[in-house]
Amino acid sequence: MRWIAFLLIGVAAGIGVIVLTAPASGQGGGEAAPIFGIKIPLGYRDWRLISVAHEEGDLHSFASILGNDAAIKAYRNEKLPFPDGTVIAALHYSHASSEENNKVFGRSQSFVPGPPTNVQFMVKDSRKYATTGGWGFAHFNKDGKPGDEALLKTCSPCHAKASRDFVFTQYAP
Amino acid sequence: MRWIAFLLIGVAAGIGVIVLTAPASGQGGGEAAPIFGIKIPLGYRDWRLISVAHEEGDLHSFASILGNDAAIKAYRNEKLPFPDGTVIAALHYSHASSEENNKVFGRSQSFVPGPPTNVQFMVKDSRKYATTGGWGFAHFNKDGKPGDEALLKTCSPCHAKASRDFVFTQYAP
Hints:
Chain A is an alpha+beta fold and 173 residues long.
């Protein structure tokens, strides 16, 4: 009995670790986001850099924007619209002051990523996602839980206002 | 004669393009930076992301920090000191307000990389660079020209104040 309890605790702890570190490690899978049915793509943390971003207003967020091979190729060839198979990932963190760096600089000037907040994906599939400009959208909180339908319904109307095939982010050389 | 002039203009323009886009495309080579003799590493723009950074004060800069395989492995294994062969790249851009994004958000809150300003490298070689903590430093302006000796002499005394083997940047999951 004690052995079984230990085993169960071990399994539960293991599951906890997997869920908690899913967005952090680039480990794929987990629960699919609603509407578009997108799961966290395996190994996205190894993708190449498209650009970085910083949002103030209500967000106070730092982001790195990574792309799979199709995304990087399209960006570098300046080819629009993005081809089917393109996946763009936005890894969000809080925009935090760095005490260590500021001490060295002698003034408050250095900002670094604080704790991760969420990771978002755009997936191009012009047939599957025809009603939303050919793009599917997904959002996962830092614990790996997907954002709800109400949140995901806000993605496409806003991205439709971007001037380059629903994508705001431009490539940083 | 006219033909030769055309050829010369073509060659000169070609060289210009190569020099100007060297840091942008991740193309290696070019002139070595002084003191440490480091050239731009081939393909660094394809390296994986370590983190992002934002400096105010006199800099107003945005950065993406990329690492070669040795750097990424050491960061992920939380292994210090960094092993010989580690190379860390800091790609700097101006920190620019995004008019396009701000129009969509309805207020000024969105910052993106402006034009590239420079790219800097730290190369770990504990024997070759023994007098500077095992690290060599290089700086290349946006035109591919290396920074001068006076600039490079400021790198190591400042990085010596970082708490993790001369490196300020921490890994962003």
